[in-house]
Design brief:
It is built from four helices and nine strands, in the order H-E-E-E-H-E-E-H-E-E-H-E-E. It is of the alpha+beta class.
């Protein structure tokens, strides 16, 4: 599910020199922490991904991120540094088609007050990720291998006897792409798998 950043940069983000970190500084994969995350408001597009629809995660991102990026650029919001997320309410291994919501979100408290006043194009929706206690599993490396980290995260969640909490409109299960792939080498690139817990 990690094509999101790639398509965002295809929309015109400037390439930057990649950082290089030592072995001691390299981020570690695995359970990261359980923490309270502040609410985020932002914009998504929803897709039904699976064999039944013929829509892939890659196609969903390819359609969503250029459209959302253009909308934010037109409204002078791209310079507010939105977070790149992809909300995954359904397990695609168990449900076909599965709902998938690529989006871009803001945590700055001064931004959300004006978002509902914007004229939003068709298929783009303003949503809120509520403040919640979140279990965070840190994936390090290629976005292509994220599919292998989800089962590990869910198994660890069960081992810790934590109960999932999806929240209103099933918005509390998502990937957050922490590092800018134009600055961070693939082998040290972090993605947070965030799951709401009770």
């Amino acid at each position: 599910m990690g094509w999101c950043w790639g398509f965002l940069f295809a929309c015109g983000r400037t390439k930057k020199k990649q950082k290089v970190c030592s072995e001691e500084e390299a981020p570690q994969a695995g359970f990261y922490k359980i923490m309270e995350l502040e609410k985020k408001r932002g914009f998504i597009m929803e897709f039904k991904v699976g064999k039944k629809t013929g829509v892939t995660f890659e196609k969903a991102c390819k359609d969503a991120y250029p459209a959302i990026s253009k909308f934010l650029t037109d409204n002078k919001l791209m310079d507010k540094h939105p977070s790149v997320l992809a909300v995954s309410p359904d397990d695609p291994r168990e449900k076909d088609p599965a709902r998938y919501r690529p989006g871009m979100f803001f945590t700055d408290p001064n931004i959300p007050s004006g978002l509902e006043k914007l004229k939003v194009p068709d298929k783009i929706r303003l949503v809120e990720l509520p403040k919640s206690k979140m279990y965070i599993w840190q994936h390090v490396g290629s976005y292509e291998n994220l599919k292998d980290s989800w089962p590990a995260a869910l198994a660890d969640l069960q081992k810790r006897k934590l109960k999932m909490k999806l929240g209103a409109d099933d918005m509390l299960c998502y990937e957050q792409y922490v590092d800018d792939p134009e600055e961070t080498p693939e082998e040290t690139r972090r993605t947070w798998i965030c799951i709401g817990v009770q």
